[in-house]
Amino acid sequence: MFFKNQNCLLGLKEKYQSRSFTASEFTRLIRRQFPAADFSFRTRRDYAVDPDMVIVAGSYDYYYDQQGLPHTEITLCYHPEQELYLGSCLNWEQISFDIAECIGHELVHRKQHKTKSKLASYISQLSDPEKKVEQEYLGAEEELEAYGFSIAAESITFNKEYHSCTMYVIYANTFDNDHSVVVKLEQQIVKYLIQLTGVR
Fold first, then answer.
1. What is the C-alpha radius of gyration for the chain, rounded to an integer number of angstroms?
2. Which of 180, 115, 177 is nearest to 144 (CA)?
């Protein structure tokens, strides 16, 4: 599924790189590549996003899934003051990866809910409130598995060691006081490296 989605989006480059889009038009182009019964896409503006960049975020909704509604929402974030995006200036490779990875990450969460897996939470021992919240989010077993997928996908797509992948570095820094979490993450990474390599 990951590679299928990634290749589908990469295939848009040749056809649309000479076009220009508003943010909403680009979101609509991406949305048309995925079944509306499963996925919804929205456009958002944020000054944290640089011009000519598109930042991807996602969420899975178990309640919507139970009701037969689109279960995964993908948000494409754009710079607030940029009116047009030139296809020739977009990093199609990065955008294709980010969207496919985000969808894959959320589908891991969907599978967790579907199988009703009992996944443990993580209780941080840190006193700093902000770092405590971050540890308890990233350290939960459901996120360890989902980010294990994300890191494996990045490693394979960009042909690099998983230790240098963005989220791996974040985990290593976040849990420098508890290496057992990083060990669990590595187990998930290896699992998904094997799975993804087998279907590529």
1. 18
2. 180
* Domain ranges for the chain: 12-106, 129-199
Q: What is the pTM of this model?
A: 0.94
Q: Is 26 in contact with 76 (CB distance < 8 Å)?
A: yes
Summarize pLDDT for 1-22 with one digit per residue, the tens.
Answer: 999 999 999 999 999 999 999 9
* Cβ–Cβ under 8 Å, residues 150 and 167: yes
Token pair for residue 82?
Answer: 């940029």
Q: How far apart are CA 50 and CA 81, in angstroms?
A: 10
Tokens of 16: 């649309």
Taking only the tens place, the pLDDT of each residue in 96-130 is 999 999 999 999 999 999 887 778 999 999 999 99
Rounded CA separation 1/100 (Å): 8
Strands of the 55-60 sheet, one edge to the other: 39-45, 72-78, 55-60
Phi, psi (rounded to 5 degrees) for 27 = -60, -40
